[in-house]
Amino acid sequence: MSDNIAILELQNVDKSFGPIDVLHDISLKVRAGEVLCLLGDNGAGKSTLIKTLAGVHKPTRGTILMDGAPVEFSGPREAQEKGISTVHQFGGTFPLMSIGRSFFVGVEPTKGWGPFKVYDRRKANEIAVKAVQDFGITRIDDGDRLVGGLSGGERQSLAIARAVHFGARVLILDEPTAALGVKQAAHVLRIVNEAKRRGLAVIFITHQVMHAMAVGDHFAVLIRGAIAADFRRGEKSREEITDLMAGGETMAGLEAQIDTYMASHEGQPPPAP
Fold this sequence. Notes:
This protein is an alpha/beta fold. It is 33% helix and 25% strand. The chain has nine helices and twelve strands.
């Protein structure tokens, strides 16, 4: 991998919720055409890190940079406008919508003029089907098909294709293979490699070491909210990575504490760092 400037970088990022310290001195970077695998067991702090990257939480301390310049996100929409797109475990799709409608939800193409504009179903379907098929998902050929009839892997593929179509530069994949069978997981891993080939920076969050090793270029192991190891492809074996992940205690109960803190301080300014 060349030494070009990282698309997204975290420098010494901490995140606390009042007295609850969740992330500690996180420094990571991901470049175009690279897959950064963020590994950690349940409760390691991955969810909070994802939300910090995606603009849901602001760092308590530290800096987020894009293309080498510091950035601050006022919320997820601003992060998305900068090109950071998050695909959650079940794809963020809508089971009772058609593929075309789900692909364009919130930004539906229209036809007609003035007050007579209506949703352009044909255009939406054509674009959605082509975007998914460009990723090699040839089984999807009908934009009117309901999303709920797709397999888990196909739903993930649809969500990733949508993110790419709408200009994602950094793709954050939150446990995309966790609930999938072997065939569907392999399907999603092929999509990840295709996104990498297209020059996206991919952050692949998982606790499944084999899936990470299949696509990763750069790996970071998160334990109790801190980076326990940071290494490149080929530098550690599967057994070494698994041992690293197993070496940390999970932050049991932290999510509940955070939710309680956020609920009790809703509408109040955050404490000074």
